[in-house]
Amino acid sequence: MKYHLVTLGCQMNLSDSERVKNVLEGMGYQSTDKEEEANVIGILACSVRQKAINKVYNKIAMWNKRKQSQNLITFISGCILPTDKEKFLKLFDIVFAMRELPQFPQMLSQYGVTTPAGLERENLNPKEEINFFWKVKPKYNSTFEAFIPIQNGCDKFCSFCAVPYTRGREVSRPSNEIIEEVRSLVEKGYKSITLLGQNVNSYGLDKKGAEINFAELLESIGKIGEERANRFWVYFTSPHPRDMGREVVEVIAKYDCLGKQIHLPIQSGDDKVLIKMNRKHSVKKYRETVTAIRELIPQATLFTDIIVGFSGETEEQFQNTRKAMKEFEYNMAYIAMYSKRPGAASYSWEDDVDAKVKKERLALLTEDLAAESGKYNRNMIDQEYIVLVRDTDRKSGFLSAQTEGKITVRFASEDKTLIGQFVKVKITSSTNFSVEGTLVEVEHLQEV
Predict the structure, then answer these.
(1) DSSP 8-state class, residue 325
(2) How far is 46 from 277, CA to CA, in rounded Å?
(3) Average pLDDT, the chain
């Protein structure tokens, strides 16, 4: 018996997929990359973007057609709005909330019945269920990179976002489980670990003093790094500027194992747009955080998220976002054109920025980003960096790696045994979004 799993959306869904795979393989199923070979096919969906939902409908139409000639079980979970979930109940054999993964084997054994398990039911305690979900061991997709969920849900209710309606309110995972998972991965030789949550720096606030806060969690992880000689980098995504205090920046600066790359979504560089987005932070508050980062971690790279063409965004407001791009000198920005999502507060508002204008603003902001990123990358030339080799490069005869600041580096080598290892490279040339270098040496460190 074989299964095939399609994962859409963010890194949180990718992390969830690792637990789904472990449950299926614990039942005796084997993974296959070929859909036509699978007896069970599932999808982890993402209602945050319409394009991802469209993919779901395309997939299930094809799979249901296949059922006419072969036995096939289909299931769906992930980040799903209630309105989408109601529709999927008629299309998939099994629909369940990710927090109900521990009950998935029982659902699968009754595959002939469409299961409305993802809908609200009597005596359902989502907080208890998500804690059971976190106890499911993941089947990591990599031998050197791993994602660790530390929190689920969001309480911010940004007006453009559907996450509070797909994943619910914030629930923090027990810190002892997180710390133990980090320690276990480090002992197994993992080199890059990312802590995941919709709003990681509000970690622990839902426990009302019964749990440590995010800075304290990072401190505990930093101490693991101090205990060991083998190098590893720990990152987190995504924080919210409202909760990103100086204390967190101080902890990152203090420990070598805490990666010097910070993803801090600004979404807009205009205060009036931020108010309309219900972001609960101003450009001034954001600037204070970036100033602390530049002061305490001058070597850190800065990534962000930006939405262009939000409901009512004027040309002047867009120009303020361009000013923010230049002021904060981002190394990378994930820029998206605004689109309405059912469930989000802005869904009922007029989407009054013309599509052509959105595309023009996206192009201009991308040009600004290229200028800032390119300037940073040019300054890397003739410098030596420790990088983590991640894969072969698209350029034949080269490997692809990343610096601690997640700048992409390629260097000439066909030695695939270097993948998953730290090496030192000297940068020889740059483009706006990557650099190229030559291999200096391979790092070999003994564990203690």
Answers:
(1) H
(2) 21
(3) 90
233 contacts 193 by C-beta, under 8 angstroms: yes
Stretch 294-315: mean pLDDT: 97
Is the pLDDT reported for residue 113 higher than 60? no
Residues 6+ apart with CB under 8 A from 62: none
Which are the contacts of 175, defined by CB distance < 8 A and separation ≥ 6?
Answer: 204, 211, 212, 216, 217, 220
Distance between CA 183 and CA 190 in Å, rounded? 10
Q: Which residues of 8-21 are buried (b: 16+ CB within 10 A; e: fewer)?
A: bbbebbbbbbbbbb
Residues pairing with 209 in the sheet: none
The Cα 5–Cα 18 span in angstroms is 10
| Rg from Cα positions in the chain | 22
Query: Under a CB-based contact definition with an 8 Å cutoff, are residues 145 and 190 in contact?
Result: yes
On whether the CB atoms of residues 186 and 222 are closer than 8 A, the answer is no
pLDDT computed for residue 116 by the predictor: 42
pLDDT value of residue 150:
94
User: What is the chain's length?
Assistant: 448
Q: Buried b / exposed e across 375-406, counting CB within 10 Å, b at 16+?
A: ebbeebeeeebbbbbbebbeeeebbbbbbbbb
CA distances from 89 to 163, 190, 219 (A): 20, 39, 44
Q: What is the DSSP letter of 304?
A: E
Given the structure tokens 């490279």, which residue do they identify? Answer: 425
Counting residues of the chain whose pLDDT is more than 70, the rounded percentage is: 95
Q: Which of 95, 94, 60 is nearest to 80 (CA)?
A: 95
Q: What are phi and psi of 54, to 5 degrees?
A: -60, -35
Q: What is the pLDDT of residue 118?
A: 38
pLDDT, tens only, 235-255: 999 899 998 989 999 999 999
What lies within 8 Å, CB to CB, of 174 at 6+ separation is: 131, 134, 211
The H or E element that residue 2 is part of is strand 2-7
- Mean pLDDT, range 183-204, rounded to an integer: 94
| Ranges 137-146, 176-185, 374-383: which has the least confidence | 137-146
Q: What pLDDT does 234 receive?
A: 98
Residue 448, burial from CB neighbour count under 10 angstroms (0-12, 13-18, 19+): exposed
Max distance between CA atoms of the chain, in angstroms, equals 64
Q: Of 284, 277, 376, 272, whose CA–CA distance to 330 is shortest?
A: 376
- Is residue 208 within 8 A of residue 170, CB to CB? The reply is no
DSSP letter for 137, please.
P
